[in-house]
Design brief:
The chain is α+β, with helices and mostly antiparallel strands and 469 residues long. It has a domain of 145 residues: Nucleoside Triphosphate Pyrophosphohydrolase, CATH 3.90.79.40. It is 18% helix and 33% strand. It contains ten helices and 24 strands.
Length: 469
């Protein structure tokens, strides 16, 4: 209340400001051009030593177990769905996917149903004038090597609410209430549409002011985008969630020119999404056509695709030290590849409007080639560009590395991620495909559910400088 006889304070002036943060892209690109790892005098080699040390000190162990040994998990007697006793975390259900009007257009599969929006957040801060990212050395039970680089925060809603009864998630407060922090990216993105039912995560990058004290912990280290680019050239070091968030960084390189305007590209995509006859409905897991349930796995009768298994986990550095859970285990190695070609000197990537039964919108932009070569895509069959990817060698291969998928839900799931230069690729590609620049895809990544998780992995390599187009 204003004291008697005192004039009320004048209202604070309110003025508009720039609608976009014009400095963020330049600072992120500078970070991508610098290989900096504070606390690791040996640079990238020091980061690898640190990851190995965290793996040795964590007391990690993962063992395959039969379903009836999971304790907290069991099969629902009415539906056969694999569920947690609390009804939390996630469930494995059946899914019926219909992509047409005939019997051949219907297929069935198990699917992970996790109707929660998780938080994937990376904390950023300028150190010695260069933007650095706080990365976590995190164990996931499905990783071939248990510890990989993950976002600062990687947590489901069940983790955030401590449904597991374990410790709180470190650094979470920076993402739930940024306060003085500066949000550089914040967007909902899908997970694997072949294996999740309409699952999305909040992908965030939040910058805290330079000099702001951030608590230290031995599982977390700062590194520049350029250092992450070096690490992305290595097999199995940077996890899927970190790759997804990095792809959303607003710093994708590119000229203002493109074969197609941004509006034309979006219009083409909206047409592909709206005209694709795709319907996906949950069904009971029990009696799922074409699938067999045994004592320790649920698998396709032809042995292809993937299977559902159970594991017991020991992890001293996680919020909970011991637990058991189901995991989805793909059969065989998968491929995700972009063809790239320059038009008028401008690099373009060949994207495919890819239907996936579990995607929130049914269709998202994926790489040119995606899937298991020995198990043709149920919607497209064999990709017309698969041979060009598999036969590429020498200077035509701009990037190739083996990356794992989400180790919290998938066991030993990995794929060969590749970028191939092909100057003979058609300028007018087959239906369902379109040329786009990295900058155009970066613009779409400011919005949710345009670019799928496999394409985001490859785009994280572009934004960090791991691949030069």
């Amino acid at each position: 209340m204003t004291p008697p006889g005192t004039a009320p304070a004048a209202p604070r002036p309110v003025a508009p400001r720039w609608r976009s943060d014009r400095s963020a892209a330049a600072r992120l690109r500078r970070s991508a051009a610098v290989v900096s790892t504070p606390g690791h005098p040996d640079g990238v080699a020091g980061v690898l030593d640190w990851i190995a040390e965290r793996a040795r000190s964590g007391g990690f162990g993962v063992d395959r177990i039969p379903f009836d040994a999971m304790g907290e998990w069991g099969f629902d007697p009415a539906t056969g769905d694999l569920v947690h006793r609390t009804g939390r975390f996630f469930a494995v259900r059946g899914l019926r996917v219909c992509s047409g009007t005939g019997p051949a257009d219907v297929r069935h599969q198990p699917v992970i149903d996790q109707p929660e929006v998780g938080v994937l957040g990376i904390l950023a801060q300028e150190i010695d004038g260069v933007l650095h990212l706080l990365m976590q050395a995190k164990m996931e039970p499905g990783n071939p090597d248990p510890v990989q680089l993950s976002p600062t925060v990687q947590a489901t809603r069940s983790n955030l609410s401590r449904a597991h009864g374990g410790r709180t998630v470190r650094y979470l407060e920076y993402f739930l209430d940024p306060g003085e922090g500066r949000v550089l990216a914040d967007v909902l993105q899908s997970e694997h549409g072949d294996w999740f039912l309409r699952k999305s995560n909040r992908n965030m990058i939040v910058e805290v002011p330079a000099g702001h004290p951030v608590p230290e912990h031995p599982d977390f280290r700062w590194m520049s985008l350029g250092a992450l680019g070096r690490l992305l050239r290595l097999d199995g070091v940077v996890n899927m969630d970190a790759r997804s968030v990095l792809a959303c960084a607003p710093a994708h390189p590119g000229a203002p020119d493109a074969l197609h305007t941004d509006t034309d590209l979006r219009s083409w995509f909206v047409g592909e999404r709206s005209l694709t006859p795709l319907r996906a409905d949950p069904v009971p897991l029990a009696g799922l056509p074409g699938w067999h349930r045994g004592a320790d796995r649920i698998h396709r009768e032809d042995g292809l695709g993937f299977e559902v298994v159970a594991v017991g986990v020991r992890a001293g550095s996680r919020e909970v030290a011991r637990w058991s859970q189901p995991l989805l285990r793909p059969v065989g190695e998968r491929v995700a590849a972009f063809l790239t070609r320059r038009f008028g000197g401008v690099p373009h990537l060949l994207v495919r409007a890819r239907p996936e039964g579990g995607l929130p919108g049914g269709v998202e932009l994926g790489p040119t080639v995606q899937g298991a070569p020995g198990d043709p895509d149920p919607f497209e069959g064999r990709s017309p560009f698969l041979d060009a990817v598999l036969s590429a060698h020498g200077d035509a291969v701009l990037y190739r590395a083996v990356h794992t998928e989400e180790g919290g839900r998938f066991l030993d799931s990995h794929g060969v991620y590749t970028v191939v230069r092909d100057d003979t690729a058609p300028a007018d590609p087959p239906p369902g495909h379109r040329w786009a620049t990295p900058a155009q895809l970066g613009e779409l990544l400011r919005h949710g559910h345009y670019v799928n998780v496999q394409a985001r992995t490859l785009l994280s390599c572009v934004v960090t400088g791991a691949v030069r187009l």
